[in-house]
Specification:
The chain has 144 residues and is mainly alpha-helical. It is built from six helices and three strands.
């Protein structure tokens, strides 16, 4: 899967959840090398700006769909199968060596082997995953 396929899927899947789409785009835009995001929901709610409860609802939906993984409070991981910021990872926030390049396939392998990774996240990270529209298409439009 590539990012353009993911963007088409996201546009269809979240077409009625504009807040979720806005949060997803913001997360993609603020990710660090390797797809990590170091920001709380409150910080993102302030930046967009949206009510924190709306950002939380978007996070829940993104986590359920396997797009986002909450590693711990204030630290999230975008699924590298769909949205990865490549480049060189800075040394201070990683166990990787300084300046080591982040390889998408290596990162995917690490995630698939991580027992703490949620199943939905692992399913989306599998090679050759086909993205289908969500089965429960009876979602209501989320407004601000």
């Amino acid at each position: 899967m590539d990012s353009t396929e993911f963007m088409r899927w996201a546009a269809k899947t979240y077409s009625r959840e504009r807040v979720t789409m806005a949060v997803l785009y913001y997360l993609i835009g603020c990710q660090e090398v390797g797809g990590e995001i170091h920001a709380t929901q409150a910080e993102i709610a302030y930046e967009i700006p949206l009510p924190r409860s709306s950002v939380n609802a978007a996070y829940v939906m993104l986590e359920r769909d396997g797009v986002l993984w909450k590693r711990r409070r204030g630290k999230y991981q975008l699924n590298p199968a769909v949205a990865l910021r490549g480049g060189r990872k800075p040394a201070k926030r990683s166990s990787r060596k300084p300046g080591e390049q982040v390889d998408q396939l290596d990162l995917l392998r690490e995630i698939l082997q991580d027992p703490d990774a949620p199943e939905a996240f692992k399913a989306m990270a599998q090679p050759g995953t086909r993205l289908d529209e969500r089965k429960d298409s009876s979602t209501k439009e989320t407004g601000i």
